[in-house]
Write a structure and sequence with these properties.
It is a single chain. This protein is α+β, with helices and mostly antiparallel strands. The chain contains seven helices and 16 strands. It folds into two domains: 175 residues, Probable tRNA modification gtpase trme, domain 1 (Gyrase A, domain 2), CATH 3.30.1360.120; 77 residues, Aminomethyltransferase beta-barrel domains (Elongation Factor Tu (Ef-tu), domain 3, Beta Barrel). Helices cover 19% and strands 35% of the residues. The strands form three sheets. It has a six-stranded antiparallel beta barrel with strand order 11-14-13-12-15-16. Strands 1-7-10-9-8 form a five-stranded antiparallel beta sheet. A five-stranded antiparallel beta sheet has the order 3-4-5-2-6. It starts with a strand and ends in a 5-residue tail after the last strand. Keywords: Methyltransferase, Transferase, Transit peptide. It holds the Pfam family GCV_T_C.
Length: 308
């Protein structure tokens, strides 16, 4: 896919500084971040004491701080949650969302667009010169194509965006980004997954949860569910045989509701893709379901983890 440029400046950015920054966050996230070297990226959940999802983040280890990248609105939950546990810890949590911007480049020829080689493996980051400024660029697992997030101050991102536009980078639409992330199984916390869901129900366990790290808030119910061996429901993608479907549409199996559409996007071929938390009995890829909204009823097929 040729590279597309998306403006994700509404996304949340949180910074954690101080000598205890890693050990502090280690106690409140599901993945093992203690060994992250400079430039390494780790995908995590921030759970509550019951193992329910408060936030879904990319943690970037930089030389002097940790940068947390997450979907819009995550800062309003995650930053206050972490801040209340800072007593006696040499760390500081700062919500940088209003001061920073974020660009997203998706495609196979990002180097041609940014003007220099971008040889990053998945979950790696480094500084890159873009539009005359040194910005953080990280490669993350959001779509089925090479996906890079570029972070900087609001002013730096505005300059970088103009630079990329002048170089001819095509601008992607919000609808296109939605389709790409749904097809790749990337949920939005607060939309597709929430504090109603224990971490494993997001079906990103391999990417986000370490079962060998030390203790953290919410670990016990997450570990207990792992020992049980299964969830009662999980996030799934659906290919829906309809050009347009409403968010909130019901997902049916055997004439009973087994889920609700939380995100949906048109594919441009007369079908749509969507997310729903589906009862485990009907969550196997290839399972035939039915989606119904106020307009009609449509056949649907489960896919996971990605729609190739």
């Amino acid at each position: 896919m040729d590279t597309l440029l998306f403006d994700l400046s509404a996304w949340s950015q949180i910074q954690i500084t101080g000598v205890d920054r890693k050990s502090f966050l280690q106690s409140f996230c599901t993945n093992d971040i203690n060994k992250l070297g400079s430039g390494a990226v780790c995908e995590v959940f921030i759970p509550d004491i019951k193992g329910k999802i408060l936030g879904h983040l990319f943690v970037v280890a930089e030389d002097e701080h940790l940068t947390l990248l997450a979907v819009p609105g995550a800062n309003e939950t995650v930053a206050p949650h972490l801040t209340k546990y800072l007593l006696g810890v040499e760390a500081e949590v700062q919500d940088k969302t209003n001061d920073t911007g974020l660009l997203c480049l998706i495609g196979d020829n990002v180097a041609d667009v940014v003007g220099e080689a971008v040889s990053l493996e998945l979950n790696q980051g480094r500084k890159i010169a873009l539009g005359g400024n040194s910005l953080l660029i990280v490669r993350v697992d959001i779509t089925n194509f090479p996906t890079y997030l570029v972070s900087g101050s609001r002013e730096e991102i505005e300059v970088a965006q103009q630079y990329l536009l002048e170089k001819g980078a095509p601008v992607g639409t919000d609808a296109h980004f939605e389709r790409l992330r749904i097809e790749a199984g990337f949920p939005f916390a607060g939309v597709d997954i929430s504090a109603a869901n224990i971490a494993q129900e997001a079906a990103r366990t391999d990417q986000t949860i370490s079962f060998t790290k030390g203790c953290y808030l919410g670990q016990e119910p997450i570990a207990r569910l792992d020992a049980m061996g299964h969830t009662n429901k999980e996030l799934r993608g659906l290919v829906i045989e309809a050009e347009s479907v409403s968010n909130g549409a019901s997902v049916l199996a055997e004439e009973k509701e087994v889920g609700t559409i939380t995100s949906v996007a048109q594919r441009g071929d007369g079908t749509s893709v969507g997310f729903a938390i589906v009862r485990a009995k009907f969550a196997k890829p290839g399972t035939s379901l039915v989606v119904t909204d106020a307009v009609g009823t449509y056949p649907a097929t489960v896919f996971w983890p990605r729609l190739e």
